Amino acid sequence: MQTKWRNWVHVTKLDPDKKLPRGAFADIATSGTDALMLSGTLNVTLENMASLKEEVARAGLPLVVEPAGPDVVMFDGIDLVFVPSVLNSSEVQWILGKHRDWVLHHTVNWEKVVPEAYIVLNPDSAVGKVTHADCRIGKEVVASYASIADHYFHFPIVYIEYSGIYGAPEVVKAAADVIDNAILYYGGGINSPERAAEMAQYADTIVVGNAVYDQGIEVLKATVRAVS
Fold it and tell me: pTM of whole model > 0.85?
């Protein structure tokens, strides 16, 4: 599992603060998505994260936790923990500080940890507001962050996050053009096969989240088919 994640092309993001109808997890399990990521920004607790983990464990898919903070990290029953550093945040706590506190006060199973270099680009998103990210940056600046993340800090993942809106393909392409080693993730507004296919031209892995809650499983399956 430590290296297989590099071959994922489609990940489904599930929010502990949201609910899906009965039977949805069984449908997600057979959708063709490569993995499930448990992730959210608002109202995420260790309790609702653990509850969601128990619900989706039966799906039999690789299970990733992407924590909003050190208090909601879990390792039991989880394959990997993707830990974000928001590179374009104006506050160091979202780049390094919360990570220091995590290591200082908790036991870390480093074998399951995969660092992510996050570049957040939707100023109206919860993650953009909470982290005070400088979202109004052009593709050249995004590419510079991506290059530093890949070549200087050696992050295994660079994650372009538009969180709730569909982003600019040229921005994702600019990041892809300067990355040699990291896996490029894209998330935000993928609610159709056309959008999935467009972003998959540049990103190694696309992440589908809100569409599962807003439009249902059939849209999720369509995005899987578009990138498979």
Answer: yes
